[in-house]
């Protein structure tokens, strides 16, 4: 009788052990985001910005000053980029930004065929809400409308308020 009970316990123990080991080694079919996650994990952090890119804090002095009814609120500053909101009466009118194109050379390519200039620098319209200039073949200065009342001529006027000549001397 003892032998029979011991046998049942042994069989139950072996089945449990078998279930446990197979459950731990079972492979799951990869999800649709698994490959992207693996690629992301292999990349080095900060790889998108080149080492030579200008610190974003260096750009702040070239932004137009707040004046009258307009407020300038810095929203982002990182290596190679700085951005500020242009507000009036608490309402977002536009985004002002300066970016170092050394990290993304294709950003400067669109200026090569430009026929328009603002303060002597090549300018382009991007869609219906953006106007940009390229300063010193390196720095893209952009104004993006965030409100329909902020027109292309407003964007151009605000681009002229940046210290573009000072920015051209930054290296």
What would you say about this model in short?
With 171 residues, the protein is of the alpha+beta class.
Walk me through the structure:
This is Lipoprotein. The chain has helices at residues 2-25, 34-42, 106-109, 152-161, 164-168; strands at residues 70-78, 81-88, 91-100, 116-118, 121-126, 130-135, 139-145. The relative contact order is 0.12. It folds into two domains: 2-42; 56-168, Protein Transport Mog1p, Chain A (3-Layer(aba) Sandwich), CATH 3.40.1000. The mean pLDDT is 85. The protein has a seven-stranded antiparallel β-sheet with strand order 1-2-3-7-6-5-4. The protein is an alpha+beta fold and 171 residues long.
Unreliable spans: none
Could you name the CATH topology of the largest domain? Answer: Protein Transport Mog1p, Chain A
Strand order of the largest sheet: 1-2-3-7-6-5-4
Q: Quick one: biggest sheet?
A: 7 strands, antiparallel
Number of strands: 7
Domain count: 2
| Count of runs of 4 or more consecutive helical residues | 5
Strand content: 25-35%
CATH class of the largest domain: Alpha Beta
- Globally, the shape reads elongated
Query: Which structural class fits the helix and strand makeup?
Result: alpha+beta
Helix content: 25-40%
Q: Gap between N and C termini, in Å?
A: 91 Å
Mean pLDDT: 85
Question: For the CA atoms, what is the radius of gyration?
Answer: 29 Å
- Tell me which CATH architecture of the largest domain applies here: 3-Layer(aba) Sandwich
Could you state the order of secondary-structure elements as H and E? HHEEEHEEEEHH
Keywords: Signal
Organism: Chroococcidiopsis thermalis (strain PCC 7203)
Protein name: Lipoprotein
């Amino acid at each position: 009788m003892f032998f029979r009970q011991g046998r049942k316990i042994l069989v139950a123990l072996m089945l449990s052990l078998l279930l446990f080991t197979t459950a731990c080694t079972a492979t799951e079919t990869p999800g649709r985001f698994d490959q992207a996650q693996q690629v992301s994990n292999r990349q080095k952090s900060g790889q998108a910005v080149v080492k030579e890119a200008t610190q974003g804090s260096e750009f702040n002095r070239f932004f137009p000053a707040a004046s009258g009814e307009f407020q300038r609120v810095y929203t982002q500053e990182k290596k190679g980029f700085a951005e500020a909101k242009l507000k009036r009466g608490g309402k977002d009118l536009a985004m002002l930004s300066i970016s170092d194109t050394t990290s993304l050379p294709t950003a400067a390519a669109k200026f090569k065929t430009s026929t328009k200039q603002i303060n002597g620098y090549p300018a382009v319209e991007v869609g219906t809400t953006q106007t940009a200039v390229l300063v010193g073949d390196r720095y893209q200065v952009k104004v993006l409308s965030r409100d329909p009342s902020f027109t292309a001529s407003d964007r151009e006027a605000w681009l002229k308020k940046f210290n573009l000549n000072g920015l051209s001397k930054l290296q």
